[in-house]
Amino acid sequence: MKLTPQRWLVLGAIATVIVMIVIYTSIISPARTREAAKSALLSSEQTAIAGDRAQLAQLQALAANQPAELAKAFRLAQAVPVGPQTPGMILELQALAKASDVTLREVRTISTTPVNNLTATLYEIDVVGRFFNVDDFVYRVHHQVNVSSSGAVAIKGRLFAVTSVQLSLAGSAGGAAVSSPNIVQATLQLMTFSSAQSGGSSGSSGSSGSPSATGATGATGATGAGTTSSPGTTTTPSSSGSPG
Description:
single chain, alpha+beta, Alpha-Beta Plaits, 2 domains, 5-stranded antiparallel β-sheet, 42% helix
């Protein structure tokens, strides 16, 4: 049977449709499916990248503030160290006595009391010098840690809380005779603060006359302890300042 041109056109159209269906099902539809999957994966990656960028920004902010935080922690450790740190406290008092031109004669540990998460150690110290120099020494001790009216904290060393000051003429206080009547002896009770120690006790038993951390004679008190925070300990620092 001979096909007419119209039938050839119909057969050609049908063949074209079949070819298009085959092409769509075998090529176009899978490509679209793969494109949709890749688009979803790309969106997920973009979300993850955005989260990583936010975390990176937080880490950069923390890194920028870290030096300031470390400096703040170091200053606080100066004011409130770990453990009593009695030898270091004596060295600091000697430096203040030298700056005020007075003599730090004796340091006695009175008591140790827990205060919240800190430990308060009460000391009694004797200084000798001219009245205004002694007054300057008390001022320096009191202002080792100072808070301004705006709330800013200035830390120069240990936090001392002076609880009492008693003045007397040096000759009438049982000390060595002095030539000048302007020389006074001040007995100060002051409190220092320390945080809890992670290890064991810092004190160690010793004998009278052993060298201390300050290069001076060791404990002369009844307990026989070295320059630690044990109550009853008496330490005679090396000479600092020369009243006269």
